[in-house]
């Protein structure tokens, strides 16, 4: 199996990031909360942003169309950064 790693620190693959995005994680911070990618050295954050910007997040279109209030309601449950 050919795995494309996005985050080498935690062994997170491109397909895992896409799966988390399909489950509603539409920002690098939400991806980090789901699988820790981007929380160590940070070198993968731009790659994660690129994946999310290419439509990996199905809710991204709703945000751009003005449906953010409904589409992103689960964000309010995320812990705030210190």
From TrEMBL:
<dbReference type="InterPro" id="IPR041854">
    <property type="entry name" value="BFD-like_2Fe2S-bd_dom_sf"/>
</dbReference>
<feature type="domain" description="BFD-like [2Fe-2S]-binding">
    <location>
        <begin position="5"/>
        <end position="53"/>
    </location>
</feature>
<dbReference type="Pfam" id="PF04324">
    <property type="entry name" value="Fer2_BFD"/>
</dbReference>
<keyword id="KW-0249">Electron transport</keyword>
<protein>
    <recommendedName>
        <fullName>Bacterioferritin-associated ferredoxin</fullName>
    </recommendedName>
</protein>
<keyword id="KW-0001">2Fe-2S</keyword>
<keyword id="KW-0813">Transport</keyword>
<keyword id="KW-0408">Iron</keyword>
<dbReference type="InterPro" id="IPR007419">
    <property type="entry name" value="BFD-like_2Fe2S-bd_dom"/>
</dbReference>
<keyword id="KW-0479">Metal-binding</keyword>
<dbReference type="InterPro" id="IPR052371">
    <property type="entry name" value="BFD-associated_ferredoxin"/>
</dbReference>
<keyword id="KW-0411">Iron-sulfur</keyword>
<comment type="similarity">
    <text>Belongs to the Bfd family.</text>
</comment>
């Amino acid at each position: 199996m050919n795995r494309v790693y996005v985050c080498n620190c935690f062994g997170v693959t491109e397909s895992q990031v896409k799966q988390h995005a399909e489950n509603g994680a539409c920002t690098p911070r939400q991806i980090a909360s789901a699988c820790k990618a981007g929380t160590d050295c940070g070198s993968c954050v731009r790659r994660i942003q690129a994946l999310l910007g290419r439509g990996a997040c199905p809710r991204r279109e709703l945000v751009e169309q003005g449906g953010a209030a409904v589409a992103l309601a689960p964000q309010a449950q995320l812990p705030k950064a210190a």
